Amino acid sequence: MWDLDPKVLEKWDKEYFWHPFTQMKVYQEEENLIFERGEGVYLWDIYGKKYIDAISSLWCNVHGHNHPKLNSAIMKQLCKVAHTTTLGSSNVPAILLAKKLVEIAPDGLTKIFYSEDGAEAVEIAIKMAYHYWRNKGIEGKNVFITLSEAYHGDTVGAVSVGGIELFHGTYRDLLFKTIKLPSPYLYCKDVHGNLSSECTADLLMKLEEILKSRDDIVAIVLESGIQAAAGMLPFPKGFLKGVRELTKKYGVLMIVDEVATGFGRTGTMFYCEQEGVTPDFMCLGKGITGGYLPLAATLTTDKVFEAFLGEFGEAKHFYHGHTYTGNNLACSVALANLEIFEEEKTLEKLQPKIKLLSQRLEEFWELKHVGDVRQLGFMAGIELVKDKGKKEPFPYGERTGFKVAYKCREKGVFLRPLGDVMVLMMPLVIEEEEINYVIDTLKWAITELEKEV
Ligand code: PMP
After folding, report:
1. Are residues 371 and 405 in the same domain?
2. Atom of ligand 1 nearest to the CA of 223
3. Final residue of a domain: which of 318, 343, 368?
4. pTM tops 0.70, yes or no
5. In sequence order, which residues have a C-beta less than 8 Å from that of residue 8 and are 6 or more positions away?
C-alpha cells in the first residue's frame, strides 16, 4: 500500500512521532522496530524480519494477528457503517456485545458502559461510584482506597488510584487523595517467596480497620489477582475474596480492574471467577477485541444502575460519554473475538500451555541474574537483579531489561520489559513449540548478560 524505503520511514518515525512510555532521546539514537504486518503469533518488520509477538502487542492480542474471522467481522460491519453515536441512540453490535458480556461476566454484573481504553474504563468506574453515593443522597463519601504499586492507566483519575511512584509521583499535586494499602505481594511474600496466609489475613485486617473507622469511603479500587504493570506481582489466593467480603460487610463499593487479566490471561475468562467474586464494577479493555481495535467496558450491577434512574429534570444521569463510545466496528470485532473463544475452545487449549509455562519458568531460578519468578495463569514476570544473594537491582539507567529484550530480537522474539522484569504475555493461541522457543531465547539472552556484567 505504502511502498516506502525503510530508511525513510525510520527517519520520519524519529522526526514526527512521539512514542508513549518512551525516552525519545534514547529512541532517536537507537534502531527501532517498525512493524508492517502480522499473521498468527508472528509480526514482520519493514525489513521482512519475523518475530514472535511474546507480549501480545502490549497484552491485548488473543487469537493471533490477521485472524480471518476477526478481519471479516470488521469488513462486514464496515460495509454497513463504521461509526454511529451511542449518546441517546444505539447500534446493533454494541447491543449484542453488551448482552454477550453480561452472559459471560460474573453473575450480577448486568449493565455495560463502553469506552475506548482501559484507563477510561477505570475512570468511568471511579466517577460512577462517586456519583452513585450522591444519587443515593449520601454526602461526604470522597475517599478511595487503593493499593501501593497499583496501575490503572494514565488519565488523571486512573493515575490518582495508581501507586507506581516512577509513573505517578510527578503528578502528585494534581491528583485526588486516596488511602493506600500495601501491595499484597510485597507485603505478604516471605523469604522463600511464598505468600503466607497469615499475612493475607493481616492485610485484610488493616483494610477492615480503615473501613470500620471511616464513613467517607466511596470504594476500593484494585487489579484482579495480579498487579501486572508493577512487574507481575500476584495477589495471595483469597485476597480478592477477602476484600469482597469486607466491602459487603461495611457497605463500600468494590471496583475490580480486569483490563490486563480479562479474556483468558489467567486461565479463566476473568480472574474474579477463580475467587467467586462479583464486584460492583469490573473494568475490561485490552483483549476485549482480541487486540484489534480500542474498546473498553465498565460492567456494573442493577443496584448501581438504578441509582441513576429518575425523571429527566432530576438530572441524576451519568454525564459522561466519548465520541466513539460503543463504536460499531470495535463492538463487531469484540463479538467475533468472543465467538472464537467458543469455537476454538481457547480456554481449554490454554490449560496445558499454562502448565508448560510453569515448568519452564522453574529453569529461570538457576540463572545468576534472576532474583524472582512470578506467574498467574498465562502471565509471567522474571525479575532481573544485579546481585542474586542481596537481591540488589541493576541501576535504573542501565536499562538492563531493555538490553535483554533487544538481545531476544536478534533471535526473532519481541518483548517489552517492565523495568528489569521480563514480561511474558503471549497470545493465547501460541503453540507449545513456540512457547519453548520464546523461553529458550529469553534464557539465552539473560545468560548472555552474565558476560557483560
Ligand atoms: N488497568 C490495568 C490493570 C492495566 O494493566 C492497564 C494497561 N496496562 C490499564 C488499566 C490501562 O489500559 P489502557 O492502556 O488501555 O488505557
Report:
1. yes
2. 3
3. 343
4. yes
5. none
